[in-house]
Amino acid sequence: MEGFWTRMALRIWSVLVLLFLFVPILVIFLYAFNQSNIESWPISGLSTKWIVRTWDDPDVRTALQLSARTALAATGLALLLGSCAAFAIYRTPFFGRHAISFMFVLPLALPGIITGIALRAFFNFNNFELSIWTIIVGHTTFCIVVVYNNVLARLRRTQGSLVEAAMDLGANGFRTFMDITLPLISTSLVAGAMLAFALSFDEVIVTTFTAGAQNTLPIWIFSQLRTGQRLPEVNVVVSFVILVTIIPVVIAARLTGGGGAARMQATR
Question: pTM to 2 decimals?
Answer without folding.
Answer: 0.79
